[in-house]
Design goal:
This protein is of the alpha/beta class. The chain contains nine helices and 13 strands. The chain has helices spanning 14-29, 45-58, 73-76, 88-101, 138-151, 183-190, 274-280, 287-299, 329-348, and strands spanning 2-6, 34-37, 67-69, 111-116, 119-124, 158-161, 196-200, 212-215, 218-222, 238-244, 248-255, 260-261, 267-270. Strands 1, 2, 3, 10, 11, 12 and 13 form a seven-stranded mixed beta sheet that branches. The chain has a six-stranded mixed beta sheet with strand order 4-5-6-7-9-8. β6 (158-161), α6 (183-190) and β7 form a beta-alpha-beta unit. α1 (14-29) packs parallel to α2, α2 (45-58) runs parallel beside α4 (88-101) and α8 (287-299) packs antiparallel against α9. The two termini are 34 Å apart.
Length: 349
């Protein structure tokens, strides 16, 4: 199964619209049956509608139900109400298109649940009008907990979308205030579901800077901006083509606009994921199990001491500041080795 992953269209005119149009066409020419878009559709109302029209026209109608489209901070930051609720025109536009696409959205929240060939995608839109961060109502938190109980299966990846990355995760995750005040609360909820694959956009890192972050509560994947990359590969049209197989998740790096496979940035995750395996040995009492658990926790908790050396003006990659990337190729070789050691240990128990 193939699914396109894009983010941060920022549709402000014909330039971005053309990139989106061609990129969507090429994604589905590659055999994709769904498309995930992690927020910032457009910076004003008419351009959001234009983006939705591209999805409507260029995604084959049989796959409309497999569109998981979320709102970003640039979508929600204007037009909000005095009580903190979102711009009603934006909410109506969003709900109308999702209804037309056949995608379900809950009545009392902005949460979206979708299933594609048995794999579940939970989209956590902000409920509150904020400039850069996000916040969920209690109804959304309750919905999330219930959906995880209902949909999560042992070892099988379950995908969660947030526009903003969680704090202390990706390079520059702390930009503009970071995730928001519910960062710790969501991490606590996710802790019981290490099979989570968390997808986010927002910070516009490009291929070569983007990292696949490991945490005890899941694997964190950043999606590059389709039109406004700020470091690494900055050419417009970048995104992932996700291939979901029974034994692996394959993230292929593409410039969808130019239809070029940037295979040097591909990443393959064999299943079960490291956090899933680590959960199984967290209470090990034998020397080998304890050693493996400690090593897994080391790799699952790497953080930048300062992910914004120039504050909110930080755009450069870590190497510019003399900082080593937490999850470079050498780190993933070690993680691959560790994962196999844990599998062999579990088989021997």
């Amino acid at each position: 199964m193939k699914i396109g992953l894009i983010s941060d269209i920022h549709n402000n005119g014909q330039y971005e619209n053309d990139i989106l149009l061609k990129s969507v066409e090429n994604i589905f020419k590659k055999g994709a049956i769904g498309l995930i878009m992690a927020g910032d559709i457009g910076d004003y109302h008419a351009r959001r509608k234009a983006s939705f029209e591209v999805f409507k026209d260029k995604v084959p109608i049989e796959y409309h139900k497999n569109l998981v489209l979320m709102l970003g901070n640039h979508d929600v930051r204007s037009g909000g109400m005095l009580d903190g609720s979102l711009d009603p025109d934006l909410v109506n536009l969003y709900r109308e298109y999702l209804k037309e696409f056949g995608v379900g959205i809950t009545d009392n929240t902005m949460c979206v649940a979708s299933s594609i060939n048995g794999y579940h995608f939970l989209c956590l839109n902000t409920d509150v009008w904020l400039k850069d961060m996000m916040e969920l109502k209690q109804e959304s938190i309750d919905w999330l907990k219930a959906e995880l109980v209902k949909r999560a299966k042992p070892e099988k990846p379950i995908f969660i979308l947030t526009h903003q990355p969680l704090n202390n995760s990706h390079w520059r995750a702390g930009l503009f205030g970071g995730f928001g005040k519910q960062d710790a609360e969501l991490k606590k909820i996710f802790a019981d579901y290490p099979q989570i694959v968390l997808l986010n956009g927002h910070i516009h890192n490009g291929f070569g800077v983007i990292e696949f972050v490991q945490r005890p509560f899941g694997t964190l994947i950043e999606l590059p901006s389709l039109t406004k990359g700020e470091n690494g590969v900055k050419k417009p049209g970048t995104g992932w083509l996700l291939k979901i197989e029974s034994e692996a998740l394959i993230f292929e790096a593409w410039n969808f606009y130019e239809d070029i496979h940037l295979d040097e940035h591909d990443k393959i995750f064999e299943l079960p994921l490291l956090p899933v395996l680590a959960k199984k040995i967290e209470n090990a009492d034998e020397d080998e199990g304890i050693r493996l658990s400690k090593e897994a926790n080391y790799w699952m908790n790497l953080k930048y001491a300062n992910d914004m050396p120039d504050g909110d003006s930080t755009t450069k990659e870590p190497s510019y500041y003399g900082i080593k990337r937490n999850y470079d190729d050498s780190a993933y070789r070690e993680i691959t080795r560790l994962r196999l050691e844990i599998i062999n240990y579990l088989r021997s128990c």
